[in-house]
Every structure is written in C-alpha cells, then in structure tokens.
Amino acid sequence: MSASLRFTRRVWKSFIDNKGHDAQCFPNLVIHHAVPGTVDFSLKIEPSNLNRVGTVHGGLILSLTDTLGSLAVASKGHFMTGVSTDVGASFVRPAGRTGDTLHARATLTAMGRSLAYTRVDFTNPAGELVAYGYHTKYVGKSSSDPNNVKFSEDGEQVIEGERR
Fold first, then answer.
1. How many beta carbons lie within 10 A of that of residue 1, not counting itself?
2. Of 62, 77, 101, 159, whose CA is between 20 and 30 Å from 143?
3. What values do phi and psi take at 66, rounded to 5?
4. Average pLDDT of 11-32?
5. Residue 84 burial (CB < 10 Å; 0-12/13-18/19+)?
6. What's the average model confidence in pLDDT over 28-47?
7. Are 102 and 43 in contact (CB under 8 A)?
8. Distance between CA 164 and CA 47 in Å, rounded?
9. What's the CA gap between 104 and 148, in Å, rounded?
10. Strand locations in 13-97 (E)
C-alpha cells in the first residue's frame, strides 16, 4: 500500500472519528487508491442517500464533492485540509438507487500557498459520468500543520514528516 493511500485513509479516519457530518452521511465510503493529487472512492447507495423520487440526492453529491475534494488535498500530504470557499456540482444523469455503487475520482487540479482547487467526477458502475463537482479550499494556515508530510513523486514513500 502506498504512503499516500495510508495517509489519506488516516485523514479519512480522523473525519469519521470526529463523529460529525461525514460519519453520519457516508460512513461506508471506501478509499481504493491514492497517489498525490488523485484519489479513487466508492460508496454503496443507502436509502438515506436518496431524494423523494428514489435516486441519489443532489445534496449527497455536493457533500461528497466537499469531503472528497478535501481528501484529494490530503493525498498531497496535508493532514488539515483547509476550509471551503466555494463548492458546486453539475448533474448529468441519475446517479443511482439503493444498492447501487457510486464511484468517484477526486483530483487536485491546482494548489498554491493559499488556495487549492479540486474536481470530483462521479460515475455509475457502467463507468458513465453521472455528475461532477468542483471545490475550492483555503489552505493557507493548514499548510504549516505539524502532521503534514511530503511524499515521493509517486506517493510510495514519505520523504519528510512522520512515517506511520
């Protein structure tokens, strides 16, 4: 398992351990793969994820865009992932029903000293795009967190910071 994947899962665990929004809304989120700047996920759709017509609620997509965008920042070694300044989504087709699996890829498209920009693509089991989201984060203060690490370019090793 790559160092980037281990670290991203550790950050996700800290989200869940907080027992806040993420733990309530999608505790069954699975992180499959992470390299610096890109993370792949899946989520089995539960009845609580649906709107009144029986398909995935748009609010779930927006909430996942926020959380998964944060984890894309984490995949670059940031334990504290900053705060949201902007989030949005476009919905292409229904994203699924109870029992379906929603797949997502979160990508860190750019990160400077103050802002990070992410994109999250959501696909159904057939690989069709169902929605995409964007997320901008202020990362200025979180960039100096003592729990941050630096990875090798491929994300396989921690080259600076604590190795867990």
1. 9
2. 62
3. -65, -55
4. 95
5. middle
6. 97
7. yes
8. 36
9. 24
10. 30-35, 38-44, 83-91
Instruction: Supply angle C-alpha 96, 98, 103, rounded to 5.
Output: 45
Per the document, the length of the chain is 164
Placement of tokens 């909430």 in the chain: 63
What is the helix (H) or strand (E) element at residue 101, kind and residue range?
strand 101-111
Q: What pLDDT score does 162 carry?
A: 76
Query: pTM above the 0.85 mark?
Result: yes
Helix (H) / strand (E) containing 7? helix 3-17
Residue type, 26: F
Looking at residue 163, what is its pLDDT? Answer: 65
- Output the CA torsion 19→87→90→27 (10° steps): -10
| 1 pLDDT tier (thresholds 50, 70, 90) | confident
C-alpha 152/C-alpha 77 separation (Å) is: 10
What does the radius of gyration of the chain's CA atoms come to, in whole angstroms? 15
